[in-house]
């Protein structure tokens, strides 16, 4: 299971009658073996683990420190691997596997990476490009620890390059030609799905890559987005940040400079389309009742009510709190945007999970509010928070926001998480996602 051509050998035959009976003694022995194994594993974890509980401040002796050019820094637990790794990642070339070119460029090969890197799904291109330049990259399959399968299927689908049926069949065809995928059942292969649909862009993902490493902004969406029962998942699903517009993260940002709290017009805002979603519709109605506290215009794709990019961010920065309700799925890009206009994100998405939760204490930089309690109670709670606390949360967010950035060049950016896959030539420390990917190897069932 987990590869297109692999058929597991039958272990139990209905016609085999000569096996010894399973007695009570066997059962007790098996139980003791399981119990002893469990306690031994816990003992070794306690003795050798160097990963402390999550927070923004850790003991320096067991941490790596990531420093950003805007003055922020973040401690990162070593997770038992130390500060340096001999990690090798093989990146498949588009011409070596039949089907990969279609997954990257569409059936006619006319969709370019430069076209796909734009917009909130550009992470599929950014991660691929960073791995191509990474110091962890190897061109020898036999020495690789991990294998990256590049695909821009969200972009290709949106631009009409492949339909859902073609995406599915093309993935299946490509996987059938990967002997290293079959060797491990896909355990050491990495796939990126950059939208809220997650791995469901590949309809048969639960059959073919359910043991693989899946990078997506939507951890919980794997099982919830389609409301289906997902078969046994033995792989590792890792959350990564959504794609921010580069104008937000440049030094001397041209998009929108943060305003002092005293000059902000609104207590909170939500700038987004309703899309028929209950939480968003409630916010719009609440804004009509309390227009001096909550700004919540119903945005349009076109016409006089459409907000341009500059207008959008100028509105976003004009409140102390930026409300981020769920949309088609649990995650929302507004959560990440809020850190760069320096408003405190208010998460109205009960199943939302965010990246690097083993390091970042999200209670220090954001507020999570039940989506069933959107009303005056929410506004009263936000209004009760002193400005000093708001400033403290904004300052804490400033320390970690660089982890949301896929920056092309260090020298022109506020901050840079390009070494997210080890592209920094000067740094020898293991980068956040590289470390999490490696940790995934020890999390298979």
From TrEMBL:
Name the UniProt record assigns to this protein: Exostosin GT47 domain-containing protein
**Keywords, in A-Z order:** Glycosyltransferase, Golgi apparatus, Signal-anchor, Transferase, Transmembrane
The reply to whether Transferase figures as a keyword in the UniProt entry is: yes
Q: Which InterPro entries does UniProt cross-reference here?
A: Exostosin (IPR004263), Exostosin_GT47 (IPR040911)
Topology class, membrane: Single-pass type II membrane protein
Q: Which Pfam families match?
A: Exostosin_GT47
Exostosin GT47 domain residues are: 86-374
Query: Where does the protein principally reside?
Result: Golgi
Q: Where in the cell is it found?
A: Golgi apparatus membrane
The transmembrane residues are none
Q: Belongs to which family?
A: Belongs to the glycosyltransferase 47 family.
């Amino acid at each position: 299971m987990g590869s297109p051509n692999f058929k597991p050998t039958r272990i139990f035959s209905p016609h085999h009658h000569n096996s010894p009976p399973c007695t009570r003694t066997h059962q007790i022995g098996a139980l003791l073996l399981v119990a002893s194994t469990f306690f031994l594993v816990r003992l070794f974890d306690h003795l050798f683990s160097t990963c402390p509980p999550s927070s923004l401040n850790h003991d320096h002796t067991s941490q790596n420190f990531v420093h950003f050019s805007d003055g922020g820094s973040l401690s990162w637990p070593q997770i038992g691997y130390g500060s340096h790794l001999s990690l090798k990642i093989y990146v498949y070339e588009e011409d070596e596997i039949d089907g990969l070119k279609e997954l990257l460029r569409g059936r006619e090969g006319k969709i370019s990476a430069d076209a796909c890197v734009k917009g909130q799904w550009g992470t599929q291109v950014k991660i691929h490009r960073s791995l191509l330049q990474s110091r962890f990259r190897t061109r020898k399959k036999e020495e690789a620890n991990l294998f990256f399968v590049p695909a821009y299927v969200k972009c290709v689908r949106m631009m009409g390059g492949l339909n859902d049926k073609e995406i599915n069949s093309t993935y299946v065809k490509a996987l059938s030609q990967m002997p290293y995928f079959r060797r491990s059942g896909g355990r050491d292969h990495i796939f990126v799905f950059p939208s809220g649909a997650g791995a469901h862009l590949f309809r048969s993902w639960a059959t073919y890559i359910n043991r693989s490493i899946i990078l997506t902004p939507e951890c919980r969406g794997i099982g919830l987005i389609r409301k289906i029962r997902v078969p046994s998942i033995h792989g590792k699903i890792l959350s990564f940040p959504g794609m921010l517009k580069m104008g937000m993260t440049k030094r001397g940002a041209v998009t929108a400079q943060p305003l002092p709290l005293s000059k902000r017009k609104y207590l909170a805002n939500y700038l987004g389309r309703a899309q028929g979603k209950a939480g968003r519709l409630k916010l719009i109605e609440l804004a009509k009742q309390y227009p001096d506290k909550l700004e919540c215009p119903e945005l349009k794709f076109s016409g006089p009510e459409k907000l341009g990019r500059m207008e959008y961010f100028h509105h976003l920065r004009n409140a102390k709190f930026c409300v981020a309700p769920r949309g088609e799925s649990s995650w929302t890009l507004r959560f990440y945007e809020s850190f760069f206009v320096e408003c405190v994100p208010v998460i109205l998405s009960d199943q939302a999970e965010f990246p690097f939760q083993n390091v970042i204490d999200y209670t220090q930089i954001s507020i999570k509010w039940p989506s069933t309690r959107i009303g005056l109670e929410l506004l009263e709670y936000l209004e009760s928070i002193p400005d000093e606390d708001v400033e403290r949360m904004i300052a804490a967010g400033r320390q970690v926001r660089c982890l949301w950035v896929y920056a092309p060049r260090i020298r022109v950016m506020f901050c840079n998480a390009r070494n997210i896959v080890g592209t920094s030539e000067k740094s020898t420390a293991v980068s956040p996602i590289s470390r999490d990917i490696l940790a995934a190897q020890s999390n298979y069932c």
